[in-house]
Amino acid sequence: MELRDYLQSVNIKPHKPGYYYIVQAIKVLQDKCLPLVKITAIYQEIARGYNIKPQSVERAIRHARENGQYALVTNSELLFILAEKVQRGQLTIEPPKEVEESVI
Questions:
Q1: Distances (CA, A) of 90 to 3, 15, 18, 51, 69
Q2: Is the dihedral of CA 86, 92, 98, 99 positive or negative?
Q3: Closest alpha carbon to 62 in 12, 24, 27, 3
């Protein structure tokens, strides 16, 4: 199952900014040794890309997961659970589909 589909199936919806930050965090985490990762460093990396504060990333992720099936876990737990599913091959991260340029 694709990560984006999985997030929607657990009621983490794409109309919330935290949804996209979760996807970005999983992309960063997928190639790392999970026990050695500091989530605050992931927040900082994502925040730099969007020119916002790391606290905004953390808050947006928390807000996105609060309405879903992962409401009772922390942001770190959610990100590690999803990253582990990706590493095990239970979830995939598909690159965005290329938009075809129309010929004028």
A1: 9, 24, 22, 32, 18
A2: negative
A3: 12
Extract the tokens encoding 21. 């930050």
Question: For residues 46 and 52, is the Cβ–Cβ distance under 8 A?
Answer: no
Stretch 10-34: mean pLDDT, rounded? 90
Domain borders along the chain are 3-88
Amino acid sitting at position 59: R
Residue 17 · residue 53 · CB < 8 Å:
no
What is the CATH number assigned to the segment(s) 3-88?
Answer: 1.10.10.10
pLDDT digits (tens, 9 = 90+) for 45-104: 999 999 999 999 999 999 999 988 999 999 999 999 999 999 899 999 976 554 444 444
DSSP letter, residue 2: B
Q: How far apart are CA 18 and CA 79, in angstroms?
A: 12
**Predicted structure pTM score:** 0.86
Tokens found for residue 92: 């995939």
